[in-house]
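Many introductory courses stop at the sequence. We go one step further.
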Amino acid sequence: MLVSPIADVSALAWSHTTVSDLPPGLSRLAPPSGPGIGTPARPASEHPALLGSGFTTTLRFPGSGRWRHAQASGSTVHWLWGSAADVLRFGTLRTRLPLGNPVVALRFTDATDASAEQGDPQGVKGQGPVMLAGNPVTVMQLRLFALMPAAPGMDTLSVLRYLAAAFDAEGLTFGTPTWQEFVATMAGLAAPLRVLEPGGSPATGRSIAIAGGAPMPLTAAHLGDAVAALGMTRAGLTGTTLDVSAGASPIASADGVAHPDGRVPVTAATSTISVASVEDWLSPQQSAALSRFTRGNTVRPFVDGVATYADLFAQVNRAVTAGAEGSFYVTGYSLQHDVVLGPAAAGTRRRVVDVATDMAAAGGEARFLALEMLQLNPGWVRDVQTAAQVTAILLSQAGLVATALQPDDTLNKISFLLHAEFLAGLVFYGSTDPEGLLEKLFELNKGAIQALGAISGVEAYLDPVDAEVGDNPRAVTTGALASVVLGATRKFSVFHQKIQVVRTDEGVHAYCGGIDLNADRLQTPGHGSRSPFHDVHARVDGPATAELVKTFAERWQHVAGTTLRLEAPGALDGLPTGGSDVVQVARTYYRPLAGSGRGLPYAPAGESTILETMLAAIGRARRYLYLEDQYLTPPPAFADALVAAAAHVSGPLIIAIPASPDQPFGMPRRQALIDDLRAAWGDRVKVGILRRKFSHTSTSRESSSGRLWLAAPVTAGTNMIEVAPPERVPATPFWLTIDGEVMRATHRVAGFTSPTSVRLDVERWEDTRLFDAASGTPRAEHNVPAAVSVGSFPSIYVHAKMLLVDDAFAAIGSANSNRRGYYSDGECNVFAMREQVADGDNWIRDLRIALWAEHLGLAPEYAAVALRDPAAGLALFDRKFTVGSRFTTFEAQPYATELALSAELTDKTSALTSLLWDATFIASIGVEIAGLQSGDLFATFIDPSSWLEAP
């Protein structure tokens, strides 16, 4: 039962006394501030506590369920604590507490020595007194702390009121006096009024003022307490309006109400004000055509392609019926015009070509831009004769096309090496048209653009970036292979933006993120299909819609030389302004070499607003960082910011990445960053790949194999098994399971001959790396004729480019964390913050919970409670994938860098895809033979920079 710890609260007062003796079990509820540090990241002094002193009382702890006791050795200080739902023994309350399950902790002094107690003190029954060593606890000093990890800005009284309201809602009236009565007696206490950052830390370094009065600074010593900073009483502050804008553009909320002007009415119930200066988070806009940020927007995120296409095509079909008022603009990296993008109801369109045809016929406007990949130099010699030339040309482009052609199962791209030589050599050495072959391989959008452009009333263009190798200060242009590549093409940057704009009869909607109109994005959070990517996209309604329209229009005018209908005066009037999101539309465009005459007319000096805002948000993080990225090979500025954040972020850094960075020579760079992050963050950083469940063989090559049984018993200690029948045993190596134990068959045992069975050398348990760097499923004994299932553990390809910070900031867009994304390619991101900061209705928090639930294999109902507090959810990232989690530590990906693996983890979906990766790894070998430094090639061709990055 949760009852009052003391009946008389008349002697209670607020205290900011720092408590440095939190026991380890309680410290873990507020995560450590650095690796291996046992002190809480937000010390007790940041959770104002009720302090009772100068009286004697018999302590009554709030509960008789699961709670803890701790006593420092040789000290009279004791701690008792437990979570509300647990100490109540009312488990269903867990799912009925909208802000999570708070912790109630009592710190008291008592001379009784009970330091050996590890569990419940003896004698605690119902409403009886706390007993230690058989004696009632009589305290001379008591501190009551109520901590809400999921809402760290709530002070003790706010948490107690929250619990009282929850008990009222459930009809819980335990104890005498009841918890509600106990809390009600505190209503007249002089509680602080705290001004907090979005992550729950006390605001410092900003000024506050009573409206019309002189501003007063909030210092670190104030711990965010406005009463102390203003030199007023709490009663004197009630009824006034507190200005927390600090002369900037604030986002502020109190009592669940947003105050965009930063002027907050203070009532007797106001205990915290969450505030942030937008300028601290969203960097200055580097485009004169765009605003630094706009307010009044509504952002709606989508996880994976099926949800995105459902919303997008609902609007597009409505746009078709709008006749001449309808518009559909698309710019993308990979555009497929003739694929069905999701299930369609009768009479609706789900193919881009159908939308374009019907929209043009109805008088609407359909306009398409797609990147032009291959920009060969005029007069390039077509007679490609040497292997070095072929490999260099492939390598120069392979990093650019990986996104569009990347197969789903990427754990073992290097395993293609064995058959790549034959296939690539057959095609290239037998070709009489190298330029045509390169166009087939790398000009991914030409067919779609030609088909769409041929429709009457539709316009479609390939859009190249004119950046050349001289616009990359890191380029190394010497060497045999480099000279061959540069002889064919000197242009390596591309447009990577993924924007869709739709005008219907009800308004204009814009979409931005990582999703192209491409069959590779047809995925759901269940990840039941084998090949599509995991991705994140967003729809934006409001003033920021015009910024995305402008981004498309600038490129359109440059390529097509015509004006769009949505550029007409008044076309964007009436955009909604009642949303609760502050949005910045940010871009990356390359900066050319000074005096070169190159550059984009709408960004002649380039733009790096995406990087600058990402750095600002990481620098403001206090509670957690969550990153999903396709590459994770960032430039030093971004890498250093992530490492430095360990010192000011109290909670976790979670990163989801693909099994491979899909960049030749990218793996060691990514691994070096991961090593640096682990050194700085300790066990608070989790870097993982997403893995599907065990998949049975499905390719035509293996259609008659894989249905096996044991032909001889298997002991726990052996690394050899015998299976039958021989004609169904695939070529080694391959994965298999027997009675739930996972093994990897590496070789057939030499010298063993049998007409009815095959002996295999297998790796088990510590050698399979299924769980971490050194372990898999435990060894077990297996008897004849146990079924043997052959299959694989395919990965889920993470294509998202997303950053979430403190449930207060979201970045969704096309820019990967590499030099292309931040300095060289054409990119577009949407950055968003909630007007209510991190409180109340918060899609940023809900998106984090949904993504973590997806990756961890948790039911949404459970995740809504278990993951609300990001620090408390950290332990769930250590769950094994055999119990449902898809998130697997980076080291656990099996054999990602081994060469001799055939195609055991690969589901190659097209001959073109196979050819691309075969040729890519032949290129890698060619580079080594030529004696070039991989770093030079990476910096010049694979991940180029621009003069935005100081050399």
